[in-house]
User: Fold this.
Amino acid sequence: MLTIILNLLEVAAWSGIAALGFGILFNMPKGVVPTVFILGFTAGFIKFALMHFNVHIVLATFIAVFFIGIICMPVAHKIHHPPVVFCIPPTIPMIPGYFAYETVLSVMNFIFMEANQAKRMELIDAIFANGFTMLFILISIAAGISLPMLLLRKNTVKKIED
Amino acid sequence: MDSSKELIKTVDLLLEISSLLMVSGANTNRVNLSIDRFASALHCNTSCFISHKTIVMTVYEDNSTLSCTRVKNIPPYAINFSIISAISKASWTAVEEDWNIDQIAKEIEAIKKQKRYPKLVVLIAVSLAGAGFCNIFSGDYINMGVAFASTFIGLLIFQLTHREGYNVYLRIFSASLIASVLASLGIVFKLGANPETALATSILFLVPGVALINSFTDFLDNNIINGLVRYTTGLMTVLAIALGLFIAMLLFQ
Assistant:
């Protein structure tokens, strides 16, 4: 039990560091550095904790990103930065890089390497399974981050007083 | 004569602000929002057409027949969240404290002069992010070292070719090719438990996350054309990355 929690915490910490790296690549303001790390950490923790309880990776990603989308409004109010600045970096570690890699690998083997008919069927299976998992994760990231912003837009962070 | 000059100055300033926001990676809705706030501080009305490479804007006043329309070309894109945040803050202070045009122009000049993070800090932070990715996809510490090194070299190539002024997709392709060739060496020499994860994560620093997320929010806001343009740019970037990875994998198969 303890090792599971420690593993989760380690993976979550690396998610936070990955979020920070991308924030710095996008030249985020220095004031949001702790926020980006904490959001990246929390999102990673939620995603991997859910996956540990056998929730599918697509749904787990959606819930983690949706959490960031929900929490960014009150946080924006508190730290006085627009939500985009600290919402996009924590979602980048969710990108399905490994599935993309597996898809490209299977496509390459299918076209250039494999002649055995049975193995080619397996490769088609791999292309579809990995490719569509990647696609659905991407869709859930995009939807998860933008839906809360649209739902909560009626009460924007600050209002113009005419 | 005076008031038409004033109008030209206003439209130039607002165009400058919106092009700065577009270049820094704000979505279309945020650009419109910021322009509206600055316009309300300057007591004028605006209508504008924002596209990926050009902005057309008309500024007019309620109680006169004067209006001014100008077109501005947008310079090459370079994502910069500090500028978005600073302009957003400036727009609120401008409305609250009723700034005049000179105050706003001075603030925008100050924002444009802000420094980016030093190149070395960016290199190390992004390489650490690459190592973090590798850990997320269950690589061990040796794989993470490989991912760190190949991300570092890949990003270095990306930055150096920027100085030479090459085409952006060519730069992405070469960065992806070199990073994945380096990570493939890890597979050849069987370093660590899952050398494939290092290869899969060494190219993730090139992923067009901002373009794709902005494209989706633009679609939801009904800015279909801008959304399509951003989506296509994102897709071109992904194709360039995939081509680099593909060639590296073909070389080492």
